[in-house]
């Protein structure tokens, strides 16, 4: 997959004046629900109407989708609203049924992307199709695995390809349902700048009130579009209720997003500057998060020192850290002066934390 320019053709051919928008319910629940949402979205920026027909769930006993009958409902969506349709496929049987029912866009979910065997089965079933096929990142932050899945599809003669960034699982509790790991998505773009990349803020956040901010970050990082789960009654949705928005809210989000177009040199400069600043914002947040975790470790050291009645300041240990970090900083292009100032500040904050515990 050395040249990804041919993969952008399907997106360029659409001639959009806004980011690609894929929206609709997490799950198709009833025919009435599917059609009602579609009619509320038909005169908006939505380009593809999404609905989960088969829902891979973490645990048995949860709602796992209505199955093939939902494909008939998607047909009616196309007939009644003119919207193109999209659904997730997880195996050969799903692919065959989706193609038979003329679904326009198929995406492969994170749980499928993680398995090369499943990806090869799906690639073989899709061989030569002219449908659009998007691949979500695997649940774990493994760029090679993500790209490998796309390469299997490309090798099978599938040209209309793209990727969906939906965040990554983590054992740590964070404000996100799936942490975005923006740096990995940026690296993905750097490797294949012409491969369309869509952001899925619904699965990244797990909370509807965070969708706008994540969507804006994605657009600032030059993502090509958004996949946003939409339901006329989100609180009573049969799956992922907390992360779905109403059609009216989706329209408002799309209206409020700052979409930067490159029409001349000044606009191109501003777009590139916004992209770089967005990357800095991401890294700054990661720095603060890391510092917070470091101070929690310092708190643990303070507890141990208190138990053993040991002095907070350990000069030998501090000098070892400082020397090692100065050398490491040199390999990263950081001056000794900067490293000294930074680690002296970190060291002082660590001492403050430990003294509060020891003297507390």
Brief rundown of the structure:
This protein has helices spanning 9-14, 31-41, 69-81, 92-100, 110-113, 116-126, 143-155, 182-191, 201-205, 211-220, 247-256, 265-308, 315-331, 336-359; strands at residues 20-24, 48-50, 84-89, 105-108, 132-136, 161-165, 197-199, 225-229. It is an alpha/beta fold. α2 (31-41) runs parallel beside α3 (69-81) and α12 packs across α14 (336-359).
Defining key terms:
2 domains; eight-stranded parallel barrel; Chorismate Mutase Domain, subunit A; 8 strands; alpha/beta
Characterization of the model:
The protein is α/β, with parallel strands linked by helices and 360 residues long. It has 2 domains: 5-259, TIM Barrel (Alpha-Beta Barrel); 267-359, Chorismate mutase (Chorismate Mutase Domain, subunit A), CATH 1.20.59.10. 52% of the residues lie in helices and 10% in strands. The protein has 14 helices and 8 strands. It has helices spanning 9-14, 31-41, 69-81, 92-100, 110-113, 116-126, 143-155, 182-191, 201-205, 211-220, 247-256, 265-308, 315-331, 336-359, and strands at residues 20-24, 48-50, 84-89, 105-108, 132-136, 161-165, 197-199, 225-229. The chain has an 8-stranded parallel beta barrel, surrounded by 5 helices. Helix 7 links the parallel strand 5 and strand 6 (161-165). Helix 12 packs across helix 14 (336-359) and helix 13 (315-331) packs antiparallel against helix 14 (336-359). It starts with 8 loop residues before the first helix and ends with a helix. The model has no long low-confidence stretch (mean pLDDT 91). Residues 267-358 form the Chorismate mutase domain. It is an enzyme of class 5 (isomerase).
